[in-house]
Write a structure and sequence with these properties.
Elements: E1 3-26, E2 34-55, E3 59-76, E4 79-94, E5 96-97, E6 104-126, E7 129-154
Antiparallel strand pairs: 1-5, 1-7, 2-3, 3-4, 6-7
């Protein structure tokens, strides 16, 4: 005797890991007095929000907003100072799908796979004044989880 059972379950639609290198421009409070950037670190990085975009035929994308706490050491006149700023970056991760199934009630999970690091920090002169350009490198991993229907033959 053979029967078909329908099982509703949650499954991973697709996932992807992507490395980002973004330049964030920061207007320091004392930009006019900046002489030299001595160092830069990133701490307190967190995912603010994540959402799914696109459709299952063309492919899905995850938009993630990431906040970084950036500490910049710089020389100003004859003194060394630290400037702390929070910056936000919006990133798009294209998901590699694992099948053409339709999923409902999708959830998205995004996390930092590696601790963000400051690759470079430099002073950039612009019309508005001097800015600090900080180049960050970080790795995000995302997955889309959805509800799907499985047909199982039972013997």
């Amino acid at each position: 005797m053979e029967a078909t059972k329908k099982i509703i379950t949650r499954a991973i639609y697709g996932n992807r890991t992507k490395t980002f290198r973004n330049v964030i421009r920061i207007a320091a409070d004392e930009a006019g007095k900046l002489k030299e950037i001595l160092g830069c670190t990133v701490s307190g990085a967190k995912i603010l929000s994540a959402s799914v975009e696109g459709d299952y035929i063309k492919g899905k994308k995850v938009k993630a907003d990431v906040e970084f706490e950036i500490h910049i050491w710089y020389q100003s006149d004859q003194d060394t100072k630290v400037y702390k700023v929070n910056a936000v970056s919006s990133d798009i991760i294209e998901i590699e799908k694992q099948g053409a199934e339709r999923f409902s009630q999708e959830d998205v999970k995004v996390w930092l796979k590696e601790k963000p690091k400051c690759i470079d920090a430099s002073i950039v002169s612009e019309k508005e004044g001097d800015l600090v350009a900080v180049q960050l490198e970080y790795v995000l991993e995302a997955e889309i989880i959805g509800e799907t229907l499985l047909n199982v033959k039972v013997f």
